[in-house]
Every structure is written in structure tokens, then in C-alpha cells.
Automatic annotation (TrEMBL):
Pfam families: Pkinase (PF00069)
MF terms (GO), sorted A to Z: ATP binding; protein serine/threonine kinase activity
Gene3D superfamilies xrefs: Transferase(Phosphotransferase) domain 1 (1.10.510.10)
Name this protein carries in UniProt: Protein kinase
All residue ranges annotated as the Protein kinase domain in the record: 1-266
GO CC terms: autophagosome; cytosol; membrane; phagophore assembly site
Key words of the record: ATP-binding, Kinase, Membrane, Nucleotide-binding, Transferase, Transmembrane, Transmembrane helix
Keyword Lyase: no
Length: 371
């Protein structure tokens, strides 16, 4: 059932490009029906608890998880594609950031982590390459390949992951990581943005914002900010005025040309159900199906039924056309309908016959009214 479901889902997406060189690379895809861009990832099946939690969240600072489905030892995930700039690229271009920009970035990052920590998710790999700045200036925390769900009473992580230099010391020891591990990574990131990579503040001229970063990056977890809310409050209170403490106004201080999403121009017929994937056998079946539908629309009234040709046409129309739209997801109609907009294949499979039955019911009502 799982492989059948995955095959059905993958038919709805067209692969555009590989986004990295990993063994199981992230792939940029386009939803054939809606034109929306998504990133397809194959994660170890052990990440299912984290992805399930993420799928429930709705945050401006996290990518939306569209679909997740197990496939053997992997979990196939389709998540929102963030169109913008990677913070790692910005760091290369701007070795140090203005403190006001760091303040705004940290407030946005704190907002993202507030959502995660409230759902017992620890990111564990906060670094520039895992942060995007979208074209509308919003920070997005991405890449949850090292994340885990915090378990009360557990003494040690099953797998120690993270990036050297950004990962908290306890991620390489024998204690369980918690929310303070993410706070450590934020502190290291803050210092890098303020001072440059591998640079420590001058203790004689240390700024209040640098002090916040140093405390966040304390080796001892007990000396760090204990919650992301505590960290966020410290950053907000340190800001110089109302301009910098807004819930992230635009990210306008950098004059950064943002990249447009890759465009894929398809012939007009490739938007027709049956032709969208470009597979020959499907197009042949589609042509035969359309011929059958046309014959059905213009068929003669059933013998013994008192109905004009026009009335018969509209009777067939109210049955065939809505059912066709529902069954083929024409113009992405599934995203607007209860049951069908679910990411669960089972719920969709139940929803389709329900809507087809509704179409039959309306056609029967129409026949009753004109008879």
C-alpha cells in the first residue's frame, strides 16, 4: 500500500533539479496541477516523529511540510520550497552584519524555535546554511535532518548529530540534548554575524549584544539562557528602539538581488489531465477517455425517458463534468475541498467517491426537476 501511495503521489510532481550532492539528494519539484514548487527529501525512517510534529505546525518561520510518506527504510517528504537567499551565501558576501540586522535575524530565529520547542522539537543543527531569507524578508529555519523529539527522563541521545563549531558540546557527550543546545548554536551564530567567523569579542569593549551571544554560547548549559523565550526577551530589550523590535519588518538594509524561482515552460496541452506527465501511454488513455466523455455528453436520451436533447445534454453535463474535475484534480481543485485537500492518501481515496456520489445525486435531482 505504501509503495502504491508513493507512486500515486510522485505522479503529481515533476522533478526539476537536484539541490545537493548527497547520496539521497534533495530534489526541487513542481506540482503538476498547481505549479507550486516543493523540495522532495528522502530521510531515514527514524525521523518520522519529528516530521509528523512539523507537519502540524503553521509558522511564518518554518517551511510547510506538504506530504510525508514512509517507503521502506526512508521517509519521503515534500516540503515548501523557500525562494530567497541562503544565509551562508550572505555571510560570504557580508563578513560581518550590522547589529540591528543581527537583532532582527535573532528575533525571527527565536520565533521559529519558539514553535519548535513548544512541540518538544530540538533542531540541533542551527548554522548559516540551514537558514534562508525569503524574498519577502522573512527568516526561515530549514533542514531538520539532525532534529529530534525531546524525551523527558532520557539520559543520552541515540544519535549524535550536528555541525562542528555550531553544535553544543553536549551533542558529543553522554547527556541528552535539550532546548539549551539550540540556544548554544544561536550564540555561536550571533558571534559569527557580529564579529566574523572564529572571532571572540574584545572583553574591554564588549557590547551588550555580544554579551548576550557569549552567554548563549556558554560551554555549561546551566549558564546559558534556559529557554528561547528568555533569550528572545534579552535580545528584544537590548534593541535600540522600536524599529528593531518589530516582529520583523522587512529585511531592507541589505541591497540583495533575490533569485526568482526556476521557470519551466510547458506546452499548453501539458496542463490537460492525462498529458501533464508527458508519458505516452497516459496520453493515449486520456485521448480515448475524452472521446468516451464526449460520446457520453452528446448521447441520445434513454428510451422511454421523456427528455429533449438539450435537457439530456445538461443532465449528462451535471454528472460527467463535475465528476471529471474531481477525479482528475483539474486546476488543483483538491486544495479547496474538504477531505481531498488532506495529505493522507487514505482520506483522499475516501473523499473522491463521496464527491462522485454527490455529482450523481445532483444529476438525479436535475433529472427529477425536468421530468
Amino acid at each position: 500500500m505504501g509503495e502504491m501511495t508513493l507512486a500515486f503521489i510522485e505522479e503529481q510532481y515533476k522533478e526539476l533539479d537536484k539541490l545537493n550532492d548527497k547520496e539521497n539528494p534533495a530534489v526541487l519539484t513542481r506540482n503538476i496541477s498547481t505549479g507550486e514548487l516543493f523540495v522532495r527529501k528522502a530521510l531515514p525512517i527514524g525521523f518520522a516523529p519529528v516530521i509528523q510534529q512539523l507537519q502540524k505546525l503553521s509558522s511564518n518561520y518554518l517551511p510547510k511540510i506538504e506530504i510525508m510518506i514512509p517507503s521502506g527504510k526512508y521517509l519521503i517528504v515534500y516540503e515548501e520550497y523557500i525562494n530567497g537567499k541562503n544565509l551562508a551565501d550572505l555571510v560570504k558576501k557580508y563578513p560581518t552584519f550590522d547589529p540591528s540586522e543581527v537583532t532582527r535575524l535573532m528575533l525571527m530565529l527565536a520565533n521559529a524555535l519558539t514553535e519548535l520547542h513548544a512541540n518538544a522539537i530540538i533542531h540541533r543543527d542551527i548554522k548559516p546554511s540551514n537558514i534562508m531569507i525569503s524574498n519577502d524578508g522573512i527568516l526561515k529555519l530549514i533542514d531538520f535532518d539532525a532534529s529530534r523529539v525531546y524525551e523527558v527522563g532520557k539520559n543520552q541521545d541515540t544519535v549524535n548529530l550536528g555541525t562542528i563549531g555550531y553544535a553544543a558540546p553536549e551533542q558529543y557527550g553522554f547527556s541528552q540534548t535539550d532546548v539549551r543546545s539550540d540556544i548554544y548554536s544561536i550564540g555561536v551564530l550571533m558571534l559569527e554575524l557580529l564579529l566574523g567567523k572564529n572571532t571572540l569579542p574584545n572583553q574591554e569593549n564588549i557590547t551588550s549584544l555580544e554579551k548576550i551571544a557569549v552567554r548563549a554560547a556558554s560551554f555549561d548549559p546551566d549558564k546559558r539562557y534556559q529557554t528561547i523565550e528568555e533569550f528572545r526577551t534579552a535580545v528584544k530589550n537590548d534593541s535600540l528602539g522600536p524599529t528593531f523590535v518589530s516582529e520583523l519588518s522587512d529585511f531592507a538594509s541589505f541591497d540583495i538581488p533575490m533569485e526568482e524561482p526556476p521557470e519551466v515552460f510547458l506546452p499548453w496541452y501539458r496542463h490537460i489531465p492525462g498529458f501533464r506527465t508527458g508519458r505516452t501511454w497516459k496520453m493515449i488513455v486520456a485521448v480515448l477517455g475524452y472521446i468516451f466523455l464526449l460520446v457520453g455528453l452528446f448521447s441520445e436520451p434513454v428510451e422511454g425517458v421523456k427528455m429533449t436533447h438539450t435537457e439530456n445534454f445538461f443532465s449528462n453535463f451535471f454528472l460527467i463534468v463535475p465528476a471529471f474535475v474531481i477525479f482528475t484534480n483539474l486546476c488543483g481543485v483538491w486544495k479547496k475541498l474538504p477531505l481531498l485537500k488532506s495529505t493522507s492518501f487514505i482520506i483522499r481515496a475516501v473523499g473522491i467517491p463521496i464527491y462522485i456520489f454527490i455529482c450523481i445525486l445532483f444529476s438525479a435531482i436535475f433529472n427529477t426537476l425536468i421530468s
